[in-house]
Amino acid sequence: MKKTVLICFGKLKTPGMDDAVGEFTKRLGAYTKFSCIEMKSTQSPEKDEAMILELLESQSFKNNHARTPQIWALDETGKAMKTTEWASEFKDIQDRGPGELVLILGGSYGLSDAILKKAHKRISFGPQTLSHELARLVLVEQLYRALSFASGHPYHHEG
Asked: What does the alpha-carbon distance between residue 44 and residue 48 come to, in Å, rounded to a whole number?
């Protein structure tokens, strides 16, 4: 995948979390140009929505990304997928789409309906509730796992 952008809310504050996320972010560099845009949450999905839409529509974002990147929203109503499904979806984005993925991870109050409707896909890590920090770590690890699997790297073992 050419580029992957994570839009999320809040900084990593839990001791060790920044190192763990940083490790997988570094590993992702072998498979995609990964960037993370940390936004300050307003604690209102509607106000956060305005900031996300403003970012996606900004000229600087448009100048640095494909015209129509694939947008995925992480949401409790989304579909939980196996790693092999993630890998297959990424291959489709690369082969048939713009080769760019924007992932949106909401803050404590989730994402607004407008953001969820703008997303091409809604994904979930299952029915449990995760802190935004833990969800971010799981997300970057899953990205690394799926992209390395798609490239034939033996990191992922299934069965």
From this structure: 6
Does residue 13 contact residue 137 with C-beta atoms inside 8 Å?
A: no
Identify the pLDDT of residue 4: 94
pLDDT in tens, 52-83: 999 988 888 888 876 778 999 999 899 999 99
* List of domains in the chain: 6-150 (3.40.1280.10)
Low pLDDT (below 50) residues in the chain: none
Region label for 85, one of left (φ > 0), alpha (ψ between -120 and 50) or beta (otherwise)? alpha
- Tell me, rounded to whole angstroms, the distance of Cα 139 from its chain centroid: 6
C-alpha distances in Å from residue 70, one per residue of 27, 33, 56: 22, 15, 12
> Contact at 8 Å (CB) between 123 and 131?
no
